[in-house]
Design goal:
This protein is mostly helical. It folds into 2 domains: 12-35 and 151-229, Endonuclease Iii, domain 2 (Orthogonal Bundle), CATH 1.10.1670; 44-144, Hypothetical protein, domain 2 (Endonuclease III, domain 1, Orthogonal Bundle), CATH 1.10.340.30. It has 13 helices and no strands. The longest helix has 18 residues, at 97-114. 33% of the residues are buried.
């Protein structure tokens, strides 16, 4: 078990956000020193497609579909030739498959017509592509092109609020707040580390403070109070026994 350093033993109320961020970053580095990209891909183009497909669904379902899809088309030209109906048949089990098949086909067509078959390397140009929002574009910029970015997904948005690093009002605010407290050169790695931590230790539901060391140490008073209330609450009787 990782033990937080002595410099973090003073009260949380006296700790600045940057000091808290340093402690969190040190713990995440011990847990996930080399976090892999969780989505199967072969190149920047297929990474973009995989991230697009991952919206509102699990990485597991995307990774189950993309090997067959990318085995047939790992570039815009082959994807356009594949056609929207064939794309749909290959990603059928991915959430929102109808819309996503249109996005994949149209994105590929636009890359051929406007970008010489290559992904553009600026955030603004990426965000103009069908189905590519700010988060997807940020993932491509940092993970495919090595440009520091801090994509915020639901895990990161939730954890930043629980840790008191952002008020959680909007995803955009969370991104700005995290960029302000973490070093720029660490953004890309932290994006992955926080996602893995959220999945393993800090779920949206049934959050257990005793099993979440970062929240236990750095969580807001509300997070700790809520956990204590949950622990003290007696188990609910099943409906048939009421």
């Amino acid at each position: 078990m990782f033990i937080f350093g002595d410099r973090n033993k003073r009260g949380m109320g006296n700790m600045t956000k940057k000091e808290k961020a340093q402690g969190i970053m040190a713990y995440l580095e011990r847990l996930y020193p080399d976090p892999p990209i969780p989505l199967y891909h072969k190149n920047p183009y297929t990474l973009c497609i995989a991230v697009l497909l991952s919206a509102h669904t699990t990485d597991k379902s995307v990774n189950a579909a993309t090997p067959a899809l990318f085995g047939l088309a790992d570039n815009p030209k082959d994807m356009v030739k594949l056609g929207q109906e064939r794309i749909l048949s290959l990603i059928q089990k991915v959430g929102l498959a109808n819309s996503k098949s249109r996005y994949v086909w149209n994105l590929s067509r636009i890359l051929l017509e406007k970008h010489g078959g290559e992904l553009p390397r600026t955030l603004d140009e990426l965000e103009e592509l069908p189905g590519v929002g700010h988060k997807t574009a940020s993932v491509v910029m940092c993970q495919a092109f090595g440009v520091p970015a801090f994509p915020v997904d639901t895990h990161i948005h939730r954890l930043a609020q629980r840790w008191g690093l952002s008020d959680g009002r909007t995803v955009e605010k969370t991104e700005a707040d995290l960029k302000a407290v973490f070093p720029r050169e660490k953004w890309t790695k932290l994006h992955l580390q926080i996602i893995y931590y959220g999945r393993e230790y800090c779920p949206a539901r049934n959050h257990d403070l005793a099993k979440c060391p970062i929240c236990e140490r750095f969580g807001t008073a509300l997070v700790k109070r809520t956990s204590q209330v949950r622990k003290k609450s007696p188990p609910r009787r099943p409906a048939h026994a009421r």
